[in-house]
Structures are given as C-alpha cells and as structure tokens.
Prior knowledge:
The protein is of the alpha/beta class. It has one domain: Spore Coat Polysaccharide Biosynthesis Protein SpsA, Chain A (Alpha-Beta Complex), CATH 3.90.550. It has five helices and four strands. Strand 2 (about 35-40), helix 2 and strand 3 (about 60) form a beta-alpha-beta unit. The longest helix has 14 residues, at about 15-30. The chain is globular and about 40 Å long.
Amino acid sequence: MVLNGVSVVTTTWNERENIEKLVSTIRRVLQHLPHEIIIVDDNSSDGTIHIAKLLADVAVTKTREGQTKGLLYEMQLAKHPTIITIDADLENDPTHIPTLIQQTTKFDIVVTSRTNLPRISETIASKTLTAA
C-alpha cells in the first residue's frame, strides 16, 4: 500500500490550552508526509476555535453534540484516504502517529488502546470489549 497522505482529525471542547502543542507535534511528526489537520470544535466557551483556525488546515465549530458525531463529521471533510483520530486533550501521544501509519501497510483498520486508563468507566469498557 502506498500512502498518499494522512488526515488527522480531532474534536475539541475547551481545549485552548492543548491545541497548539497538539497541532505542532502532529506537524513535526508528519513533516515528511502529505497531511492535513482537521479540528471540529464542539462549541467551546474558551476560544478554542480561534486558536484552531490559526493552526489547523480545517477548523470549524458545530453545535455541541459530543466527540463521536464530531469525528464522523471530520471524516467526511478528510481529503486523504488514511484517517487518524486523536484526542485533543493530549491523553494520546501524537508522536505515535508514524507507528500507526506503518501498521496501515499491513491492515485496513488500526485501532489503538491505552494500557493506563484514567477513568473507571474506560477501564470497565476496556475489560468488557476485550472479553468479547
């Protein structure tokens, strides 16, 4: 599989403090690969969208509907065939993106999972899904 580019998508809600670090790290790790960064802001009250518009290739705001709907919307905006989703709160390390991209040469879909889950609800969901 030849990689023609990657679209990195994230939804935000009050992530003004994180968005610059997230975008700059993604740009650095993907500097040798055609890419775009798409941010859909979930109607933040802290001005996240203003920073996102300065840094991202595409930055839009929408009515607060949550992360899942935001990601679906972003995927429709993506211009590259490979799409990486990442949390804007920096709980996912953007420096792992190249490793994910390498795995797309072997698999059609690559899903990551954290070993340290910060919330009990995530721990329960993870145990439930891995037991299935």
